[in-house]
Structures are given as structure tokens and as C-alpha cells.
Design a protein that fits this description.
The complex is a heterodimer of chains A (323) and B (338). Chain A is an alpha/beta fold. Helices cover 39% and strands 17% of the residues of chain A. Chain A has two domains: 4-179, Rossmann fold, CATH 3.40.50.970; 193-322, Rossmann fold (3-Layer(aba) Sandwich). In chain A, helix 1 (6-20) runs parallel beside helix 6 (148-160) and helix 3 (59-71) runs parallel beside helix 4. Chain B is 41% helix and 9% strand. Chain B contains eleven helices and seven strands. Chain B has helices at residues 14-39, 54-61, 78-84, 88-96, 128-142, 163-174, 206-210, 222-237, 266-270, 277-287, 293-316; strands at residues 70-72, 151-156, 179-185, 188-189, 192-193, 213-218, 243-248. Classes of the chains: A alpha/beta (323), B alpha/beta (338).
Chain lengths: 323, 338
């Protein structure tokens, strides 16, 4: 088998879900004949007529329709063209989808795909990471696959799940990240993975930052023999606190890394949980590294500095190791 | 009092009219009781009544078939809920916080429904139900259960200013869904009058912009409402796509029972818009021989007894126990509290 990419995995999972379950349908802008802005649905409308529907530029209505369809027993998969535009759907997702099971006892099995995160030149409105906003709301599941096989299996798991899932797929990984196969160790949603074992410090991260953290770990390995453990959260809600605490118990040091804005968010939640449940395990104050507290800049030079990089992660780790 | 009887002969079945009016009457008697319970401090939270809008609400829902069609009532649709077949206990249990109600104390008052039976539970954010009903219709289409099905919802004049209204109606039109969207223009969104809400001559003009058929009706005139709703629902069932019905009347109550509505222009109260659709409907029932005074009295008596029983039952039932609640917002137990 030739190499498959992260976007290939998403495309294959969508095709398999449509194939296996007649209640699955796809709804989003430009996803029909055109195959989607990132080609995640290329050819699927021809293969599954009437089940891959182009939507008007109406994220609120798209989400509302997906909610209604899900209540009625379908399994809609929404494609937001960019995660950023899901802000228009926010009301329907957090007030209608997220509250529905608690209020009525009727689940809302929808999946909303969010092409997330920055790429060079994309600027403030095509680069955002929205996972913390959605994770804040009870009733939503928020997943952030970092590998080709997770992109595949977690999308299938998301579609099969009865609760609404916000599936954050990272655009930077679409074509760059390759693998021999979609199949790999299949972990359930809610379980984190130790991507790289270590003993001197733990980096807890997710999505594209997993790969940047691994590069930072390699740099520190080369530079001083430091063994950095990298934990890939895979899903930010539910958050696998057990795996995080177990890792901190091994290393005594925590750095939480995320690509999103620094106020609050996933990294703050991780640090908070470790402080509350594992304070006695810490040999140094837990640290966080996020994007800068500005809108995401357009120019590649500004962008590359705005987000955490292997260099900035390594620098944060050095401080942590030298404490 | 003038009443519209023209066109009554065509397709105006006696049983249907009687069903519409009885639901209106029952809703009014129920809502009077809810108002009293609120004033007596027996209901926690708001009470929102549909006084003045019964004809519009009931005539729409009476055209729908529970189990096949979709009906998403909004804040002032007690009459429609009754006509659609919502058990009265759903209302009293939800208002009184009984754990036996469909919302189990987790949500209250008009924020109730039975989504699995084609009646979604409204949220407070206006216009959001338009696309939800559309989505339910899309799922029925996907399952091959679309034949003759219709979905209906009701919004107010204030809702027409929201993005959800625009996106929802436009998307339903693009999908050519059998949606009947009724705007009950009761002249005020909470305290905001029409002239601070929109400047178009008539809300029904919006229909053309969405490429859907528009219908206008005097919302105080029960017979006129019945006729226009029957036509709109029939056209939707026949595959003509979304129908926009604009019904005009005055809200004969505050926004909620906490609100005395003192801002309402007194001239509106004495205008045709201020007629009470129950009074108009009663006159129409009698004039056309759909009922007589003795039967009307019996209906009122029976409704009062049913309301009393539904309130008494809900009052006897326990509220939710915070120590027994599972406190989970997820259907999948593996996802709890993580």
C-alpha cells in the first residue's frame, strides 16, 4: 500500500461511514460535485447520491438542520469549511445540540468536522482552533486527532457515537502527515496515548502540536540526553486525566502545549487538573505554552512565531528541566 | 362583531373547526390557571401565555398529524400544543417541576417537547427551530418517509430580525422542504414595537425574497386562520415547498406574567388587531351552527375539570432529587464527568 495522508484518512472514513450506515449523510458548503474546499468529500456525491448535500452559506441553519436530522434518527456529518466559520453555528451547537440529551433524553448523534489550526498565509479567519470553546459546554464531545490512523478511526467512532461530536481536524496535517495505513492501535475516544515515552518531563498536547512536541523532544534528546514523554490527548473532552497524572508521576514535570489562544483553554484545564489531583507529584511548577494572545497573523514569519514551535517548546522544557 | 364565513362551504369540515376551537378554549382555560398559579407563587420561573394567538396556533397544529408530521411550537403555542395532541400533563408537570414530566425538572415552562414524537422542545434562542424542523424533514426524506409529510413551526415578529430566521427559511427553500412557517405578528417583541423591529411594509413581502409562497391572515379571525392554514399545509404536503404564513393580532397579555404590558399602545387594544380570537371564534361557532350555547358551556366545564386534574396531579408529584440525578449531559455513560 502506498502512503496515505491525514486527509485521505478523513475521506476514507467518510466513505466507509456512508457505505456502512444508510442513516449517515454529509452536509456542507461545496462538498458535492466540487468535493469540498480540502477535497475531503471528493467523489462521494457520485457514489452516494442524495446523501452528500451542498449547503448554502448558512452555518446556523446547517447546524440546526443537522440537529433536527439527528433527533429524527439520522447521523449527519457537517463540514464547516473552516473551523473559524463555526462561530456562526455556535448558538445551535452549544444551546441546541449540547443541551438536548440532558433536557429531553433524546440524543443528538451529529458530527461537526472543523478544519482547524493555522497554515502559513491563512490569517486571522482561516486558522483558528476552537476546541476549548466547544469543550466548555456540557454535552459535547471534542476530539483532536493527531495521526493518520486516529483521523480515520476517530471519525468513524465520532459518527457512531450518539452524542454530538466536534471533530477538530488539523489543516496543517492534511497532506503533510503520511502513514503506511489507516489501521493502527485503535484506542477509544477519551483515552490519551503516550506518543513518546520519557522520564524527565511530560509534554501534554494534542492535534498538530503533538508533532512539534516530538521534534522538541528529539532536540533535547540530542542536546542533553533528556527523555521527554509526549502525551497526545486525542480527545480534549473527555479529557484523560488518568493518563496525564500517571505520566507526571513518572516524570515530575509538566508542560502543557496548545496551538489555541492562551487565556483559559485546554492547557489551563490540564494544568489545573494536575495541580488539583497530582500536586504532590510535581518537582517543578507546571508550565503552559500556547499561541500568543493576538489574532492569528497572516505573514508566515509572524505566524510561525505566533504558535508554539519545536524551538519554543524546547525552550520551555529547558526552563522546566532546570528548575 | 363581524365574522368571516365566506368560503366556509369549501373544505371546511365541521369536525375540524370544532377541534380547532376546542383546543383554543382549553388552552385559554389552562393558561388562565397557569397565570393564577404564577400569581400565587406556585410556579418557579416565568409563565408565558398565548392569549390572543389561540386561533393562529390551533388552526396550524390542527392540520398536522401526530406521529407523521413535525410540529415545533414556540412561546405562545399552548393552543397548538393542545390541538397537536400534547398531553396536558406535559404542560402542568413542566411548569410545576414534576419529575414525571418530559423535562424531569431539567427545563421548565414552554421549553418542553417530545422530540421522538415529532415535537421538538424549544430553546430560547429565536429562529433556531426553523432549521431543526427542516432537518427532521431531511431525515424523513433520507429514510424514504417523506410522502405527504409536513413540518410546521411558529415564530413572532421579533424573530424575523434574526439570522436564524433568514438562514433557516432560505435553507428550507433551497431544499424545497414541506415547511409551514407561521409568523404571529403580535405587534410587540417583549416591549419592542414593530417600527423598531423592521421597516418593510408587510412581513409577508419577505416570502418573495425567499422564493416561497406567502399567505396573510387576520390572526383574530378563527375561520380565516383555519382556511389559510389548511391551504398552506396542503400546498406544503403537495410538494410546493415552504409556505410563509403571516398572521396579525395583538398580544393580549404581557411578554410573561411578570410583565403588565403597560407599553402597549392603547389604540391597538381597541383596533381590530386587539380582538380576542376566542370571542371571535365563539361567535363563529354559534353563528355557523358548529356548536350551541349548551355545548359550549359543557366544553368550558370539562376543560376546567381537566385543567384542575392536571394541575392537582402535577402538584402531588415529587420534584427532581438533586442527589439522585445522574448529573450527566451525555447519553454514553463512559463520557460522564470527564
Amino acid at each position: 500500500m502506498s502512503d496515505v495522508t491525514y486527509i485521505d484518512a478523513i475521506h476514507a472514513a467518510l466513505g466507509k461511514a456512508l457505505e456502512d450506515d444508510p442513516s449517515v449523510f454529509l452536509y456542507g458548503q461545496d462538498i458535492g460535485k466540487f468535493g469540498g474546499a480540502f477535497k475531503a468529500t471528493k467523489g462521494l456525491q457520485d457514489r452516494f447520491p442524495g446523501r452528500v448535500l451542498d449547503a448554502p452559506i448558512s452555518e446556523d441553519a446547517m447546524a440546526g438542520m443537522a440537529i433536527g436530522a439527528a433527533i429524527e434518527g439520522a447521523r449527519p456529518v457537517l463540514e464547516m469549511q473552516f473551523a473559524d466559520f463555526s462561530s456562526v453555528a455556535f448558538n445551535q451547537i452549544v444551546n441546541q445540540a449540547a443541551t438536548h440529551y440532558y433536557r429531553t433524553g433524546v440524543p443528538v448523534p451529529l458530527t461537526m468536522r472543523l478544519p482547524s489550526g493555522g497554515t502559513p498565509g491563512s490569517g486571522p479567519f482561516h486558522s483558528q482552533s476552537m476546541e476549548a470553546l466547544y469543550a466548555h459546554y456540557p454535552g459535547l464531545v471534542v476530539v483532536t486527532p493527531a495521526t493518520v490512523s486516529d483521523a480515520y478511526s476517530m471519525l468513524l467512532d465520532s459518527i457512531a457515537m450518539d452524542d454530538p461530536v466536534i471533530y477538530c481536524e488539523h489543516k496543517f496535517l492534511y497532506r503533510w502527515l503520511k502513514s503506511k495505513s489507516y489501521e493502527a492501535e485503535h484506542l477509544p475516544i477519551g483515552q490519551a496515548r503516550i506518543t513518546r515515552p520519557g522520564k524527565h518531563a511530560t509534554v501534554v498536547t494534542y492535534s498538530a502540536m503533538v508533532h512539534e512536541a516530538v521534534r522538541a523532544a528529539e532536540m533535547l534528546q540530542a542536546e542533553g540526553g533528556w527523555e521527554i514523554e509526549v502525551v497526545d490527548l486525542r480527545s480534549v473532552k473527555p479529557l484523560d486525566t488518568d493518563t496525564i497524572i500517571a505520566s507526571v508521576a513518572r516524570t515530575g514535570r509538566l508542560l502543557a502545549v496548545g496551538e489555541a489562544f492562551p487565556w483559559g483553554g485546554v492547557t489551563a484545564e490540564v494544568v489545573s487538573r494536575v495541580c488539583a489531583d497530582g500536586f504532590h507529584l510535581l518537582d517543578a511548577p507546571p508550565a503552559r505554552l500556547n499561541a500568543k494572545d493576538t489574532p492569528i497573523p497572516y505573514h508566515p514569519k509572524l505566524w510561525a512565531t505566533h504558535r508554539p514551535t519545536p524551538e519554543s517548546i524546547a525552550e520551555s522544557l529547558r526552563k522546566l528541566l532546570n528548575y | 362583531m363581524d365574522t368571516t364565513t365566506e368560503g366556509l362551504e369549501q373544505g371546511m369540515e365541521r369536525d375540524h373547526v370544532r377541534k380547532v376551537f376546542r383546543a383554543m378554549l382549553t388552552a385559554r382555560i389552562l393558561e388562565n390557571k397557569l397565570g393564577s398559579l404564577y400569581k400565587a407563587g406556585k410556579i418557579v420561573g416565568g409563565v408565558y401565555l398565548g392569549k390572543g394567538q389561540e386561533a393562529v396556533s390551533s388552526s396550524l397544529a390542527a392540520c398536522l398529524e401526530k406521529g407523521r408530521d413535525v410540529y415545533a411550537p414556540l412561546i405562545r403555542d399552548q393552543a397548538g400544543r393542545t390541538a397537536f395532541g400534547e398531553p396536558m400533563l406535559d404542560c402542568t408537570r413542566t411548569y410545576l417541576g414534576s419529575v414525571e414530566g418530559p423535562m424531569r425538572g431539567r427545563d421548565g415552562n414552554i421549553h418542553r417537547g417530545r422530540p421522538s414524537e415529532g415535537m421538538p422542545a424549544m430553546i430560547s434562542h429565536l429562529g433556531t427551530a426553523i432549521s431543526v424542523v427542516s432537518g427532521m424533514l431531511m431525515a424523513k426524506r433520507l429514510k424514504g418517509q417523506m410522502d405527504g409529510v409536513v413540518g410546521a413551526t411558529c415564530v413572532g415578529d421579533g424573530c424575523t430580525s434574526t439570522g436564524s430566521f433568514h438562514e433557516g427559511l432560505n435553507a428550507a427553500a433551497v431544499e424545497k422542504l414541506p415547511l409551514v412557517l407561521t409568523i404571529a405578528n403580535n405587534q410587540y417583541a417583549y416591549s419592542t414595537p414593530n417600527d423598531r423591529q423592521f421597516v418593510c411594509d408587510d412581513l409577508v413581502d419577505k416570502a418573495k425574497g425567499y422564493g416561497v409562497r406567502g399567505h396573510s391572515v387576520d390572526g383574530t379571525d378563527m375561520i380565516a386562520c383555519i382556511k389559510v392554514m389548511q391551504e398552506a399545509v396542503a400546498r406544503a404536503r403537495a410538494g410546493e415547498g415552504p409556505q410563509l404564513v403571516v398572521a396579525s393580532m395583538l398580544r393580549l397579555t404581557g411578554h410573561g406574567e411578570h410583565d403588565d404590558g403597560s407599553y402597549v399602545d392603547p389604540k391597538l387594544k381597541t383596533s381590530g388587531l386587539g380582538r380576542d380570537s376566542i370571542d371571535v371564534g365563539k361567535a363563529q361557532m354559534l353563528e355557523n351552527g358548529f356548536t350551541d350555547a349548551a355545548e359550549l358551556e359543557a366544553w368550558e366545564q370539562e376543560a376546567a375539570e381537566v385543567v384542575q386534574a392536571a394541575v392537582a396531579t402535577a402538584q402531588k408529584e415529587p420534584g427532581p432529587d438533586p442527589y439522585k440525578d445522574d448529573w450527566s449531559a451525555y447519553s454514553n455513560p463512559d463520557l460522564q464527568t470527564r
